[in-house]
Amino acid sequence: MAISEEQVKHVAKLAKLSFSDNELHEFTSQLGKIIDMVETLEEVDTTGVPFISNVAETINVMREDVTTGGWDRDELMKNVPESEEGFIKVPAIIDNGEAGA
User: Fold this and answer.
1) What's the pTM value of the predicted model, to 2 decimals?
2) CB–CB of 9/31 below 8 Å?
3) What are the C-alpha distances in Å from 80 to residues 4, 66, 87, 91, 93?
4) How many Å apart are CA 78 and CA 76, to the nearest integer?
């Protein structure tokens, strides 16, 4: 299946891309080669070949999610220079223009 420059222009327009005439010709040629390779792969007889979604033997390499105890809030707040109602108080970054931020 050949791809035309008009089809490449259409896809480029959808992707909001613009190409010079030289680039358009080059991309048309490259996309044509890619389509030819995919068509060649479609000709391969895969009868009896099981579907493989992962080529590696390992299924899950992540550790098990185990909860652990947290830190004591009062102990943590001992290191805070200023707090208010159980929260760490920090300087305002956004103050709606009231303090010239």
Assistant:
1) 0.46
2) no
3) 66, 29, 9, 13, 19
4) 5
Element (H, E) at 53: none
Side chain identity, residue 96? N
Tokens of 39: 């068509």
CA 33 to chain centre: 27
8 Å CB contact between 8 and 15: no
Tokens of 35: 């389509």
- What is the rounded average pLDDT of the residues 46-57? 82
The full length of the chain comes to 101
Give the whole-angstrom CA distance, residue 23 versus residue 4: 14
For 14, residues 6+ apart whose C-beta sits below 8 A from its C-beta are none
Spatial contact of 28 and 11, defined as CB atoms under 8 Å apart: no
DSSP annotation of 101 reads -
Range scoring the smallest mean pLDDT among 9-13, 16-20, 62-66, 86-90: 62-66
